[in-house]
Amino acid sequence: MSRQELLSPEGLRVDGRRANELRRILCRASVLNTADGSAYYEQGNTKVLVAVFGPREPRARGQLQHDQAIINVEFNIAPFSTSERRKRSKGDKRLLEIASFVRQTFEGAIQRSVYARSQIDIYLHLLQHDGGTLETCINAATLALVDAGISMDDYVCACTAGFIDETPVLDLNSVEESSIETPDLTVAVLPRSGDIALLQMESKLHSTKLDSVMELAIEGCKHIHKKLDDAVLAAANDLAEKLSH
User: Fold this and answer.
1) Mind listing the pLDDT tens digit of every residue in the chain (245 residues)?
2) How many helices (H) and strands (E) in the chain?
3) What are the φ/ψ torsions at residue 17 (nearest 5 degrees)?
4) Is the dihedral of CA 33, 36, 42, 45 positive or negative?
5) Out of 44, 45, 47, 194, which could bridge 127 as a Cys pair, Cβ 3.0 to 4.6 Å?
6) Other residues' Cβ atoms within 10 Å of the Cβ of residue 202
7) In whole angstroms, how large is the CA radius of gyration of the chain?
C-alpha cells in the first residue's frame, strides 16, 4: 500500500482518523480475582489482558537479588488474535522481543529496592491485534501494576507515531504499521517528569523528522495518562462501594 493510499487528500487515514487522533481507548483495572493486580486494555481493535503477581519469592533462588526485585515478563499471543491462525512457541523471537522491551521499561520505573529479594511477574496476553502491540502492552501493564499496589516512580504511558506522506501520524494501526514506507516509533514516558522510559523504532526515520514524530507521540502519551488515571479512580470507587456494603 502506498503512502498516498494511507492518507487521503482530505487528511483522513484508512480508519477515518485525522493524523493527530488516537484510536478509541477502553480500559479497566481489577478484572481478575486470581491475580494481585490485573487490567484489560483496548486501543482501537488491539486488546490486551494483563495479570501481575508479586512481590513474591523468586522461583529460581539463583536469580535472587539482595538489593532489588527481579521483574519477569511473559508475553503470549492468542491463536485467534489475527486472521492468521497459528500457535506461537514460547521461544518465538517476536514474543521474547516484546517481553524484553516491557521488562526494560518497567525496570526503570518500578521502585525495585522496596522489594528486595523478591520477584514481580507480569503476564501479558494479546487477545486481538490491530497495531500498536508494544504500546498497548506497556499501558495495560501500568494499569495492572498500579492495581497490584506496586510502588512506581510514576505511570508509564506509551504511544506510537509515524510519518505518512510528509505528515506525522499518531497511534498507528496494523495497516499503517505493515506498510514498508511508514516509519514506526514507540515512545514511553513518565508523564510527571517527562522522562523517556523507552524509545524504540521499527524502521528508519530521517533525523529531521524525528522531533516532530516524538513530540506527537509524547502528546499522545499525555492523553493516555488521563485514561489510565480515570481507570484507576474507577477501580478505587468500585472497591470502596463493595467495602461499604
Assistant:
1) 444 478 888 889 999 999 999 999 999 999 999 999 999 999 999 999 999 999 999 987 777 888 999 999 999 999 888 766 566 666 688 899 999 999 999 999 999 999 999 999 999 999 999 999 999 999 999 999 999 999 999 999 999 999 888 899 999 999 999 887 788 899 999 999 999 999 998 778 888 889 999 999 999 999 999 999 999 999 999 989 888 87
2) 5, 9
3) -80, 155
4) negative
5) 47
6) 15
7) 18
φ/ψ (deg, to 5) at 52: -120, 135
State phi, psi for 121 to the nearest 5 degrees. -105, 130
Q: What angle do CA 74, 78, 79 make, to 5 degrees?
A: 135
CA 236 centroid distance within chain: 22
- Return phi, psi of residue 43, to 5°: -125, 105
Instruction: Write out the three cell numbers for 154.
Output: 510514576
Beta strands per DSSP E along the chain? 25-29, 37-43, 46-56, 70-77, 119-128, 157-164, 167-170, 184-190, 195-201
Q: What is the pTM of this model?
A: 0.93
Name the 3-class secondary structure at 74.
strand
Q: How far is the CA of 130 from the CAs of 46, 71, 133, in angstroms? A: 5, 27, 8
How far apart are the C-alpha atoms of 14 and 41, rounded to whole Å? 23
The CA distance from 199 to 185, in Å, is 7
- Angle among Cα 66, 71, 72 to the nearest 5 degrees reads 125
Parallel, antiparallel, or unpaired: how do β-strands 157-164 and 184-190 relate? antiparallel
Q: How far is the C-alpha of 41 from the C-alpha of 88, rounded, in Å?
A: 22
